[in-house]
Backbone:
């Protein structure tokens, strides 16, 4: 090549590099902490990070905040001695409590010492001379979470909760409620049992919207920058550390968000992603793609995919929880009437009970799927409905009302004789505080005997995906080699390992607020 041609080539190269440099670059923003997801866990993380002195950017792919938390009933489990002192003990609960004394701690793995402590607590309680007030403890909550989550899938794989994670959730749940109250949330003093909670320790927080409103208000006061319609698409890794996230706006434009200290994944699960459910499911014999879900349509597993791409370990992905009592067509949770779990009565299309209504949600869902058309009815009376206006539900046919049990059965198209006899038999079990048919342990002294009577048609729907990214007690994401990924944290349904194969009702809010706070603090402090 001649000297002249070499100079020409060099000039052309310079011009090409200069032109490339003048091209459109992706806009960048930065903060100490970037939170991906604007549901309960993400907002808790953002508020916590800001409280710990960090500047925070939160992105949410929807046009509004809330995620699945916004759709929740606001049931929050926590051992709360002050509020629970108003809950009476009954013979059924005493019988269940005594059953723990017969359990062998050597069969509980890492949870064995906790069971041993619980057994001594129960003995002390029984020997105190006063068993009129409800017994509860962090140890009981921990053991019930373990038992409720220990499950074996279709392949013979048995999963249990991570002891340290479960213990952290149970021991810090009450403090999480007090934290929410410090930001203005109003919590009812009455303790109940939400469906599948197993024990009366459920707090009413006024619904998921109240929690989202409380946290979003706190986030704004603390200077958190919230970007809606902004979807995280890829984590940015430099020198082995997560330093930000690539994101996309609703109009297709892209931007880069840099995190000086850490990125928090709080994108939820994959309940609204039928293909991902089918890919991972190993628990249910079949999980139809068209099965309704109680989830937000935005719960599509984005964070799990992003985390896996940077080496995160996944745990429990095959286990998916169904909500037994969802709307038969659309999966809605708020289109019916019923009381606390101890007062609920389920009957099938033959007018017969078919399950212990106080059991875990997967037990209830499995039983419901075995009924004709996978359909059943929750039966209650005027005592439960009270002065609530349910006219809209009645007009839509979501709830059926009748002045007599016979008329209710006729309207439902079920066997009248079976149904009337079944309710009479159930009421007799309440009197005796014993259920020889399905061994329901807690009735709440509630009988179905005050007209008018009501029935809510229900059927299972996809509710909670149990698996997700593996974390430690500092909410750091763990890679496939068992080490924390620097700069990456996670909280909420995007994680796995806490609830194992089945989540207790009321434990989700405890999980997302406890670990959301931890994730925010850990990210702010660069743990």
Residues:
């Amino acid at each position: 090549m001649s000297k002249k041609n070499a100079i020409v080539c060099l000039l052309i190269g310079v011009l090409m590099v200069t032109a490339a440099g003048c091209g459109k670059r992706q806009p960048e923003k930065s903060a100490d902490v970037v939170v991906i997801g604007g549901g309960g866990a993400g907002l808790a993380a953002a508020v916590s990070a800001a409280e710990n002195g960090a500047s925070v950017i939160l992105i949410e792919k929807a046009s509004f905040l809330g995620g699945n938390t916004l759709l929740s009933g606001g049931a929050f489990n926590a051992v709360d001695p002050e509020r629970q002192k108003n809950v009476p003990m009954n013979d059924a609960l005493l019988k269940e409590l005594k059953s723990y004394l017969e359990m062998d701690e050597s069969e509980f793995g890492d949870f064995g010492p906790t069971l041993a402590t619980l057994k001594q607590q129960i003995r002390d309680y029984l020997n105190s001379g006063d068993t009129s007030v409800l017994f509860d403890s962090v140890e009981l909550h921990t053991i019930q979470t373990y038992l409720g989550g220990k499950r074996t899938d279709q392949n013979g794989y048995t999963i249990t909760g991570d002891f340290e994670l479960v213990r952290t959730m149970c021991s810090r749940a009450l403090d999480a409620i007090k934290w929410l109250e410090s930001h203005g949330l109003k919590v009812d003093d009455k303790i109940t049992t939400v469906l599948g909670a197993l024990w009366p320790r459920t707090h009413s927080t006024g619904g998921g919207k109240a929690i989202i409103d409380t946290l979003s208000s706190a986030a704004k006061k603390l200077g958190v920058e919230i970007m809606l319609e902004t979807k995280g698409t890829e984590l940015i890794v430099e020198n082995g550390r997560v330093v930000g996230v690539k994101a996309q706006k609703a109009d297709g434009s892209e931007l880069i968000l840099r995190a000086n200290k850490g990125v928090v994944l709080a994108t939820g699960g994959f309940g609204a992603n039928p293909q991902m459910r089918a890919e991972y499911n190993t628990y249910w014999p079949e999980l139809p793609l068209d099965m309704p879900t109680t989830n937000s349509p935005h719960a599509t597993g984005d964070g799990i995919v992003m985390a896996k791409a940077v080496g995160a370990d996944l745990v429990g992905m095959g286990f998916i929880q169904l909500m037994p009592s969802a709307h038969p067509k659309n999966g809605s949770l708020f289109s019916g009437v019923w009381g606390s779990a101890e007062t609920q009565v389920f009957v099938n299309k033959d007018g017969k009970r078919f399950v212990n209504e106080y059991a875990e949600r997967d037990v209830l869902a499995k039983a419901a799927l075995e009924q004709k058309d996978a359909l059943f009815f929750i039966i209650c009376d005027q005592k439960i409905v009270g002065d609530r206006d349910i006219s809209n539900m009645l007009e839509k046919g979501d709830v059926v009302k009748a002045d007599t049990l016979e008329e209710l059965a006729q309207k439902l198209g079920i066997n009248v004789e079976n149904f009337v006899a079944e309710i009479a038999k159930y009421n007799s079990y309440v009197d005796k505080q014993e259920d020889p048919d399905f061994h329901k342990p807690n009735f709440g002294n509630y009988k179905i005997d005050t007209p008018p009577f009501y029935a809510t048609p229900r059927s299972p729907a996809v509710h909670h995906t149990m698996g997700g990214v593996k974390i430690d007690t500092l909410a750091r994401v763990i890679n496939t080699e068992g080490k924390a990924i620097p700069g990456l944290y996670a909280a909420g349904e995007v994680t796995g390992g806490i609830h194992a194969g089945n989540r207790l009702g009321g434990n989700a809010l405890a999980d997302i607020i406890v670990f959301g706070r931890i994730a925010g603090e850990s990210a702010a402090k660069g743990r």
In short: DSSP finds 17 helices and 20 strands in the chain. Residues 222 and 369 are 47 Å apart (CA to CA). The domain at 323-461 is CATH 3.90.700.10 (Flavocytochrome C3; Chain A, domain 1).
